[in-house]
Structures
1.
Amino acid sequence: MEFLHSPIDALKEASHVTRNGILCGMMNQWSLLTLNCKLQVMLGRDPFYGNARFFSIKDAKNLVSKVLNGIDYSMKWSTTLYPRILLLEESRYPFGAFMGLAAKFNR
């Protein structure tokens, strides 16, 4: 999702070819890892993420809601990859480096 020109088009296509729902995985805009990636780009040390567009949980939920407008679905999200001092593996804590968002169709 981070490197797509139009994430909405990709989600629309996914909603057309799936039966049960959509599962998205992306880097979390508000994680320490993502902030470090942005800093490395700004300092010119690592251009890999220079064209990436990171999403917050709210942004990702809004994208999916926009695409699935008119479809009955339920949505869940979770994040993972936390700083080691937190001793978490996965959670609804919104600052994990990687987030997963699942939209299940209620058909």
2.
Amino acid sequence: MMFPSKTEAKILRVLGEGPAYGMEIVKNCGIRAGTVYVLLGRLEEKGLAQSRTSPPPPGRRGPNRRVYSLTNLGRQLVEIIESKNARDRRV
């Protein structure tokens, strides 16, 4: 498995906290929306993330929105990234 870029790793860590809408990921990562959506597509292609459509929250109108989450492989990779970061901090 190829190790993700720093930007992909940021997105994976956000998704490691739980499912999120694309704009939530943008806000939490501080990355431009266009970049986030391109990378989410790549992460899905790599089998690290998955998405599903979700209706608007109760009391809100609008189109269905896409919710992103990690796959099992994505979760494993986040654990590897986190353990690597913890080791790097100890050095």
3.
Amino acid sequence: MRDEVIKVLAKRHFGITIDETTDRDTQAQLGMISQYWDFFSGEMKTNLLGMILCKDATADGLSDAVFKLLQQHEIPFNRYTKYNRL
């Protein structure tokens, strides 16, 4: 399923929602969710792209983690149109 979502995101525009949490050991973790409109089913699709460790919970640290995940899966940066942080 995740591979299918990554293929879709590489070809169409999508939104990203992130949520960061820091554990007791001060390790920042980031959950990244994608959302896009599926024209074939007529539904909004929401999928977890991944949970990743961040170097820190600053704006730079979170942005770096988002870009790294997109780059890792060869998803073009210019495909995302919306960015939310919970």
